[in-house]
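In response to a reviewer's request, we include the raw inputs and outputs for one of the modeled complexes. The two entities were modeled together in a single run.
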Amino acid sequence: MLLVVEQFLNGLQFGLLLFLLAAGLTLVFGIMDLVNLAHGSLYMMGAYFAATFVAWTGSFVLGAVMALGATLLLGIVLEFTALRHLYGRDHLDHVLATFGLILFFNEAVRLIWGPAGLALPLPSWLAFPVTIMPGIQYPAYRLAIIVVALLVALLLYLGVMRTRIGMLIRAGASNREMIGALGINIKLLYTLVFGLGAALAGLAGLMQAPILTVQIGMGENILILAFVVIVIGGIGSIRGAFIAAIMIGLIDTMGRAFLPNLLRQVLNSAAASTAAPAMSSMLIYLLMAIVLVARPEGLFPANRR
Amino acid sequence: MKSQLNVSTLVAVLVVAGLVLLPVYSNLTGNIFILTLFTRIVILALAAVSLNLIMGYGGMMSFGHAAYLGIGGYAVGILAQEGIGSGWAQFAVAIAVSALYALVIGALSLRTRGVYFIMITLAFAQMAYYVASGLARYGGDDGLTVYKRSDFGGLINLGNRVQFYYLCLFCLLAVVVLIWRIVNSRFGLVLQGLRSNEQRMQAIGFPSKRYKLACFVIAGMLCGLSGALLANNTDFVSPAVMYWTRSGDLMVMVILGGMGTLMGPVVGSVVFLVLEEVLSQLTEYWALIMGPLLLLIVLFGRGGIMGMLGRLNRG
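The model returned the following structure tokens for the whole complex.
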């Protein structure tokens, strides 16, 4: 019971982080029709910025805010200098160009921060366990991640569903040409959306940083997961991304935690302990394949015609 | 019609001539390294050429093509480990299993299109990656050393550098010719028709999915061959050859050289891998140059190197 609750919360926390990453990705994908493989690099940059600024200022919150601003700025500069010229091109061009950007970012990080990873220490005011149920304790920092991510998800939902800019974003997702024809400054909207996506990715990176080490290539593995999320959720759909992200987070975490024991009842323990990690890594891809075979446009296709 | 020297044809001929004469150069100068490098280039060019068949001619953007490299490699590695050293058996199994895998994932993936197709092929390749990581008997994550190269009796000795290079080059050129024949056959024309307008082709009465699936399977088999050669080249196979960045590398080679052109992928592989090698000797931070270079090629060099040469030709 204790383990189940703990793993459930871990899964929820991972899922919410994935959502922050996937939300930016699905917006950029849905609105600009841009496949941005470099989104994972922005996640990595967020973590590196945070580790640097926190060490510099000595305050976690101040460092995090600065890192967030820096990722936002980086996203806008990136959109302005490179990605803007890719809109309307073939998806393959996007893949190639942003693949190049991944190489660039990884190498730039190696040049600036060195090949060894950085560590971002847990803020001391969050480094204690919280008793969430009688007898069950959970780290306060992970709870804080859940709270912050839920808050951001709520803000994003309200922003997209209730504000004028949100309306333009939704309109852009369903018909790009039309909102341009109606006199909306699409270029500005695009830059804004990209910056927002970058900031969300940076937020995910900097929040994850104290739990994992900050290292080169940390963006790539999670990027693939974020892509799985938006494909399952339906490209361009924030709601789909949210549901799919929680699903993936829970399945991945719970699978890793409980699959070895389940397998051990079927196979001998040696075979089970080697097969289990591989099988639990496969679970989410299996889920994605099943979803795509059953519903080729994802669970919540945004621009259904 | 005025006969005119076509720049892209000239480049293609020069590349092939260079590849054929390379061992001579290596022998004369005693530069063994260049032969090792180019053996790898030729093998990966074969994979890129097979990817070009589905991407360039079939219009199917597969982001999971490296899976076949792993399947071909593991076929060689696993059979060698189990005491079956015959190259005929190993290569036949490599190609057959690749075909089977392509048939299954192709049948499922072709239900989707566009970005979803890119992602589902990626998902299947990642699954193959994790299956390989879970093969504890065959090295798991650490990979599997191939202690003995495929044995083709007295016909050819894969342990000999030059013989092995020419075997790889023969395979590459044979596959290029095969693809040339395919593309210009009725089957290939239907395929290219499907790429330009699938609905119209269906309306004329072509069963589009069957044609695409056949193409997908052929490409998978050819890449499986490349994987079997790759395992022989490195004497090693590990899940890393199936990782998604490797699929990305293959896509880059195809697009860099020129998608949908016969020799484009070969030129692209040579340029990409030589550039990687040269830049990495120049500076430790080679990717700092390579990354933006890719971006510039996409922004300003539409149609890849072959496309640029074609424009040069027209003036």
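As requested, we also summarize the result in words. Chain B has a mean pLDDT of 90. The longest helix of chain B spans residues 208-234.
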